[in-house]
Every structure is written in structure tokens, then in C-alpha cells.
Request: fold
Amino acid sequence: MTERKYVLVTGATRGIGRAIADQLADDWHILVGGRRPDAVAEVVAQLPSAEPFVADLTDEESTLVAAARVGRLDALVHSAGVSVLGRVEELTRLDWRAEFEVNVVAVADLTKLLLPRLREAEGQVVTINSGSGLRSAPGNGSYCASKFALTAFTDALREEERGRVRVTSIHPGRVDTDMQVAIQAELGHEYEPERYLAPVDVARAVALALSMDPRANLDVVSVRPAR
Reply:
């Protein structure tokens, strides 16, 4: 049997992150990332080879402690994220800070802390970005700005680490998740799940990026609903 590689998936207790953990579970040892120990433990118990990675990624000390416990690491998949809707005239400083803290600052900080492990393994970083990281829309300015910033971060990291760590940015369209349900409810739209990607569609894109021969890298992947 081939030795399992180790991957940390943040936001792995639900939605896209959980789908990624399930998709990789047959071949990888999963570090299940999440804030709530009970939710993380539940996922760990359901996977064939897994361990917990419990941290509040918006808290520097919590992130430092969790990252220090990581041993071998072949891949880091950033799936945790938040969305704050609102027109520019409606958003507060706290709204902007909250969105950037999770979607950008936490990603950059955790990546920095784990880069030595990833370099040792000649590993990979995958960020779950969004179509909003490529184009903006009214009423979604802070989310789009955070995802544009995540695109810039990923592009810079890819070139800084070229030849040592491979970096992929995945940009899904709208995905059928609890977050999407909440977004459409806030917008007053009827929810039609068939109009959206399934979380497993994004997970398959992650698996493809991680399966590439070491000589090749998927820099940017856009996955959009067929409808």
C-alpha cells in the first residue's frame, strides 16, 4: 500500500471543506481543521486516517499553538471563509475587518507558519477562492475585495515559492452550501440548489491539483455551474 501523504484542510467540518476531506480520504491522512473540538472530532471519527487541527484562525495565539503541533505536511488547503453582504454605504469597519481577517490574514499567517514543513515535503498550497476573486459585483464589495486580495496573495506566493512549493488558486462559482442558502435568503431569492455547483465539484478540482506530476502545476482553476 502506498504511504499516505498528509494534508491540512481548514474549514473541514462542513460545506466545501468537508467535501474536500471526504474526497481525499482514501489516499491522504487528513488534518481536519475547525474551531469547535466536537465538530472536528466528529469528522475525524468518520475518516479512515485523520487527526484534529483545532484552532480559531482569527486568533494569533490559537493559530501559533495549533501550527506548532503539525509534523509532516505535504499539502495545505485553505477552505475556511466568510461572506458579508452589503453595499459600500452600509458596511462598517468591523464588517471589512472581519472579512479580511478570515479570508486573507488568517490564510497568509497560517501559510507562513507552515511553509517550513511544506518546503521540506516539496508540497502544495491550495486556496479556495471564488469567482468573486476575479470579478466584482454591487452589494458584495467587501467579499470581492477580500477574494481579490487572496488572489494577489496566492499569485505572489506562487512566484516566491516556485521550485519549492506549488501553489494553486481555485475559483468556484456559487456552490450549494449552508453559506449559499443564507446568502440567497438575505437577498430575498428563492433557493434553487440545481443552479449551483455541488461541494464535491470543488473537491474534485482540489484532488486534480494535488494529483499533478511534480513537474506540473495548476496555477488557477475556475469551476462554474453549467447552467
User: Anything to note?
Assistant: The longest strand covers residues 28-34.
